[in-house]
Amino acid sequence: MVSSLKELIYEPELGNSDDPEERFISSGVSWENYESLLAKLENNSHYRVTYLDGILEIVSPSIRHERVKTNLGMLLERFFYYKRIRFVPMGSSTFKNKAKKAGAEPDECYCIGEEKKVPDLAIEVVLTSGSVSKLEIYRRLGVAEVWFWERNQFKLYHLRDNQESEFATVYPDTYGYEALVKSEVLPELDILLLEQCLTISDSIQAIDEFEQGLKAASEQKLL
């Protein structure tokens, strides 16, 4: 991995490494340098860039990370189609707010119902720990719900705080987000079923079992 932000902005290629998941962190980075880096990486979707109060973090995801991300998106979209929920997939789009000094690129994110400037749901696949608090970034951006997939299970958080305030006034330990066991954005989704199917390595089998679980739950409601 390159050793400085200057290399990232001005060198034609990012560094290579045998490590399948690289992480670059730098502090004291100006907003202008952050935007310069985003412009440089505009046509390179492999890297995830996060910014908060001058701290910049860049992650080069591993193949395992991308496999989980892809399968998660695939299963969620099956759920949307099955439940006839209108949605707008926004992938790993960049969301940033200069005034709030915050920016992030979720692994997956969705608007529910119609397209909005900020997604209703942002999802992060966590295989290695980072140094930047994603929840604080998402609070400042006003993302209603954030999911973390970590150690084969989900951690769900719903925003309760006003993102306009400088610091979280409720649930300060989780930056204004309340930990949930059930999604409020997608209340009909069985999180345990989604977790179980995400651990299945065969994609077709995962889809089959997920759809069977959805069908069984629907039939149970009719009894």
UniProtKB/TrEMBL annotation:
Keyword check for Lipid biosynthesis: no
Single annotated GO MF: endonuclease activity
Keywords: Endonuclease, Hydrolase, Nuclease
Superkingdom to which the source organism belongs: Bacteria
A Pfam family reported for this protein in Swiss-Prot or TrEMBL: Uma2
Domain Putative restriction endonuclease residues, every copy: 31-170
Protein name: Uma2 family endonuclease
Species whose genome carries this gene: Anabaena azotica FACHB-119
